[in-house]
Amino acid sequence: MPAKRVLIFDSGVGGLSVYQQIIKLTPSIKCHYLFDNAYFPYGELPHLQLIKRLIQLLSEFMSQHPADLLVIACNSASTVALEALRKHFSIPIVGVVPAIKPATLITQNNVIGLLATPGTIERAYTTTLIEQFATGKTVLRIGSTKLVTLAEDKLIGKSINLNDVKAVVSPWLKNEHNMPDTIVLGCTHFPLIKDEIEACFDRPIYFVDSGAAIAVRVKQLLTLDHKALKLSPCNKTKQEHQAFYTKNFTNTEHLSTLKCSFAEYSFQRMTFCDL
Ligand code: DGL
């Protein structure tokens, strides 16, 4: 019996933080990881361009590598394109959006920090999440592409300067009395540099991300009625995963270091018909 095929998608390495949670809970799936490094960073792309790119790229990819379930492991993409993607594709799609609701249950001082990309921060979707779930709480938003690139740097083996991280969160450090006690990591890249973000604060902070909840959702969907979802039953053996990227790496050393982070994956450049 073939294993269930899950496509995990992001602009870069961020989806790895989601993959780690998924595979812990459902080790028998076969993962394809696609990262669109040609269009990175997604957090700065105009809405319509991003939606168009996602539909074109994912259609093309899944025509070559069919999937049973798609995980959009990217808040910047999910907060703007989930509806369009669900209309376009017939397989189940799990999106990753900022974990505002869980954060409201954790905060003690009622000040929540939302750390995400500039795109996610300004989305109507994000504002609605905050209005729906965080009434009576203060939600302070910081949008940063710098942190995204720092996470990418870390995974290709470059060292991170803590002052760069501090500079991003400095608006929260300056105001002792209005400092968040709970921070939502609203970009899948950020759990990969959680230690560095944590090191900027002189007090304990709760960090919340969506990875674990996504893993639960993926498992639920994969174990639902197979017939209804047109999924093949679970294969018990451990699977070979494959990672694909959309733009060649200029530095082969960087690619080799990255391959260590994606140790269970074999790597290849995606081939396009005409994108
Ligand atoms: N990892 C992505 C997210 O969760 C996006 C990073 C980017 O390309 O800007 O938003």
Written description of the protein model:
- Helices cover 44% and strands 17% of the residues.
- The chain is an alpha/beta fold.
- The chain folds into two domains: 5-96 and 211-269, 3-Layer(aba) Sandwich (Rossmann fold); 100-208, Rossmann fold (3-Layer(aba) Sandwich), CATH 3.40.50.
- The strands form two sheets. The protein has a six-stranded parallel β-sheet, with helices on both faces. It has a four-stranded parallel β-sheet with strand order 6-5-7-8, with helices on both faces.
- Helix 1 (15-25) packs across helix 10 (211-223) and helix 2 crosses helix 3.
- The longest helix has 18 residues, at 47-64.
- Residues 231-236 have low confidence and may be disordered.
- It binds D-glutamic acid.
- D-glutamic acid is lined by residues 10-12, 14, 40-43, 74-76, 117, 120, 145, 148, 187-189.
